[in-house]
Amino acid sequence: MSEKLFTVGKIVNTHGIRGEVKVIPHTDFAEQRFAKKSSLYIVPSKGGKPIPVTVETSRFHKNMYIIKFTEISGINEAEKYKESLLKISEDLQEELPDNEYYFHEIIGCRVVTDDEPAEELGIISEILTPGANDVWVVKTPKGNEILLPSIPDVVLDVDKSAKLVRVHLMEGLL
Q: Which of 52, 88, 103, 119 could be disulfide-bonded to 92 (CB atoms 3.0-4.6 Å)?
């Protein structure tokens, strides 16, 4: 399978004896992702080919989803998928509004300032989600980290195709 897959959740445990699994969502679109008849892939934690599955039932319970897949019929079968990731194919990704991005579109982007001439700060290595806004972690060529809040005053322009982000460094950010 050559198409790209994107993580939407993680199977953390089994639930009951009928083959249901507990899933921690890793997506802003959990209701669509885990809806009845949704197509997902289980990517086994121990390696191996992604396994296509279909959601038979799903319900939200204590910050997790309890999901029954058509293809998994009992606890013994469900047990082997603990710690596995749930993924979707690229064509199922939602179109995002302007100025909203998937993590995989941002991580790896070069970051430059809006100064003349522009100064290259480094590469976005991860995204933190502490609360009100995301924080983009920029790894500098010297190995230091710069934390940039993902807010309109700081992030001026994101060119996904060029993998380039232009930012305005407000006082106190460096």
A: 88
